[in-house]
């Protein structure tokens, strides 16, 4: 077990370093984009005075290095700063510039939980579905079922996400009004209703991620079928299904787990198109909007969340791969 | 005795590319209850295919095209898949060549043992576990109560092979197919496994087909022997009759293989500087020490055989001499001059002088390169030859190893047989014009006839080019045929060294004695006599007595 513990500590340490590097990269990248928040929000007809005034209010007139360290100092203490956009609206309305309500954390939190909810529902459907399909495809390899599954999953991964989304809307919301086509989620909504509204985007995403996981499951299992221990199991009179589930699958887990982790990370970080189609208030839309208006604190926070998701999921995958290997679990 | 298995006019084909090529050409086979049949032949003879066919089983890409297989009145070729599954494991069981590969690494040994009895409803899980422990005890596995609860990688190869025999016995089958069960084991371990297999087969009156390429082994195990050659039957006879009066020329040639012996060479001058001198080297990996103060000399034109069981440190010595694994302590001299221990610090000429030939010619040759390129590479790298000169040199080398250059120059390794690949490995080593070659188990993956050809080639090259060999092997027959001096290793130490004559004539170091006496002999009574001589009525105590 000490190996696992060592890896966790090591990787978490590396993860912190990675997050730090990501934050520098993102900060630099956003600064290199033409224009800044003041210009973006005031538009074409802005007077230089107005622009300068907003810049002064937000501290944008200071050198980037200073701003970065200012942000970093806050971030380390858990304060991700205030959203430019929210602060701005507050000053328009005329309330005090004490922008506690406009903090990045307060803005991201509900969106983040929405994204996690969507990712969670999708994962609960997609992972068992893909692994099961993969097992069945391996069991009935080269059969009609296998070919159909391959064609079906490949065509769904090859189609644009919005196209899949509209097809599902057409069949499941328009022609047969079973599910709502809009996912207008709000806080304080009941779980059942929330689930119902999340189902269509979740199904769309399931179609997107299934192919990858299913094909890896199938390939990893088939790869092992020529092993002597599989032949041995067959020569003991073991049924084909049991050969695959009990004898092949446990040894094929490592690559499958890795692909699952990659796809889960994608569900957290890359679903903006699906969010737009279903008007789902997730973190992806917020991120894109914030980049558009150069709202650096929000962009930074989103990127850190994305990076952290990748790091944690990959770490989990590695640890589970290790745990699936009896040689490491039970050393000599 | 009543008939248990009848195979009539069996034809088996294997698919290569799009065509079906024959593997077994119309062989008849029958087996009575309680009888043990030995199936022998070289690789490619179709022994394993035939053994699996006796279970009504074909590997992927193989099919039984004609003939019939009746097991206890049941037509295995016409039976449904479910019907066959109800027989496999329950009434017909299989013991594979490599137990290490044939046990599922993900499950404990006992979980795999009980799987058969439970799914065939022979015993409950608890009964089967109890029975497994009893079988482990019968097979004299150490700590029978606990050993089953370990994972396969936690148990040694010889123990796994016995655990697999126990697993085959789990449903008390009528027939067991043993497919080269001891080929991957050291001689000392082999004896224990052979004895325990024979013991348990006797005890339960099980019929068995015992597949092997080793005549001496089959002589100990079988009542009757069938010799196969390239899918055809050569002859069948009772063991004793066949050993004393083989009818066919081919059978006799199998017998004769072990007779190749080089004449002894004159003794070396004690004053001569050895080509390679290994002086008190100690080495290891990470925190584990593998070698402890190993010393020996290799003189010009002579062969030093380094023998020992797997894990004794033979190959590690080779890695030290080549500089791949710099030893922690000690000196390696070449012609009386100390070599840098790390190969990266050696000069090109120092590297050129010592070459290596590997056990697995398959993996030691780049599959993407032609033979001409493989041999041409060291010719260019070490000797600086290019263009026509290089080609001519490669052709010379191909002549040396008795492969016609015009036929082999442009071929890929995959188009060659195992023996031919090993010859290419030899040519590649010769290309550097070395004075010293390390041969690491170069014949152990080859059939005996082919291996003999390689040994003769190496002997001729040694005479012509005054080469010195370090010959790593666990096969004492090879040592007997080619070595001048012998170094016996155990647990990373040299336990005995001296000339071949000294080594093969008593008195021996107890470990050398154990190694020598463990090599199977053709005499069908050899195993029984040996066990009696070692003072044990049955197998188990041999394990306990071993190496005390």
From TrEMBL, chain A:
UniProt entry keywords in alphabetical sequence: Cell membrane, Membrane, Transmembrane, Transmembrane helix, Transport
Major location (coarse): membrane
GO CC annotation, single: plasma membrane
Compartment list: Cell membrane
Stretches that traverse the bilayer: 12-33, 117-140, 161-179, 199-226, 252-278, 298-323
GO biological process, one term: transmembrane transport
Record membrane topology: Multi-pass membrane protein
InterPro entries for this protein: BPD_transp_1_N, MetI-like, MetI-like_sf
Limits of the ABC transmembrane type-1 domain: 112-317
Entry's family note: Belongs to the binding-protein-dependent transport system permease family.
Listed name of the protein: ABC transporter permease
Species of provenance: Puniceibacterium antarcticum
TrEMBL record, chain B:
The organism's taxonomic lineage, starting at the top: Bacteria, Pseudomonadati, Pseudomonadota, Alphaproteobacteria, Rhodobacterales
GO biological process: peptide transport
Main location: membrane
Highest rank taxon of the organism: Bacteria
Localization: Cell inner membrane
Protein name: ABC transporter
Bilayer topology annotation: Peripheral membrane protein
Keyword Membrane appears in the UniProt entry: yes
GO cellular component: plasma membrane
